[in-house]
Amino acid sequence: MDEQIKQFFASENDAGERLDASAAKRAGLSRQYVKKLIDAGDVKVNGKTVKASYKLKAGDEVAIRLPEAEPTAVLPEDIPLDIVYEDADLLVVNKPSGMVVHPAPGHSGGTLVNALLYHTKDLSGINGELRPGIVHRIDRDTSGLLVVAKNDIAHRGLAAQLSEHAMDRQYRAVVCGVVSAERGTVDMPIGRHPKDRVRMAAVEGGKPAVTHFEVVERYERFTQMIFYLETGRTHQIRVHMAQIGHPVAGDPLYGGDRRLSFHTEGQCLHAEVLGFIHPTTGEHMRFSASLPEDFLEVLRAVKGEKR
To answer: In this structure, are 133 and 179 located in the same domain?
Structure first.
């Protein structure tokens, strides 16, 4: 069976944290699953097997060996869905923060796909049985809108709009630091980080990535912003903002983990607006999703330090 290696170097933020907790957070896996991997000898620190309770030091190299997901059928699960729109060809879902989009090692259940299969039997098969209907993804700890295809014709039409950068995708975030420019563009290619396989990075030879932004409101230590994606690379907003010195608040993977007591579940990032041409009717459709409670909690906290 094929295997996958996830690798990262412990940062100053990771120092002193338990191996199982830090590895789960950095690799996007459940802590229980990571502990099983550690007990099986599939997690090594600096090339050596250690206990789950090992306290990381800055610079430690952590390698996680993951088996590929078994090609078994995904089971429907009765998980509530926030469906913004639905017709015979597609549906638009407002995904909560903390939900994985499709099954993967460490996340065999509780995903958006499990919930979709309970809701409907009509999902496109282009991406196989582990990702039925999934046209695009957003990160586990990012909330907001996704479009799901119910048949292959709709899937091809929506995927074509994605590849041609024709979808309207707007995100809202709180980032660390005070952004001086009112608006601007980050144009940096993104690829796999050369030393940390868990992360992406702005690297030469990476895929083109363009993010447009504007400032909504500034606070003493943070800035509320809106982003417009021209491309859709993995972790694009998170990588670009970290690269210009303003990582997304609450994002430990890219330096935004400022130990925010009011937001501990991941990056403060929300896919707020999604627009596209309906692949069957040709109608232009545009949807928006209100900011979730955890995001509003962040705003209430940072508004107390408004500039």
So the answer is: no
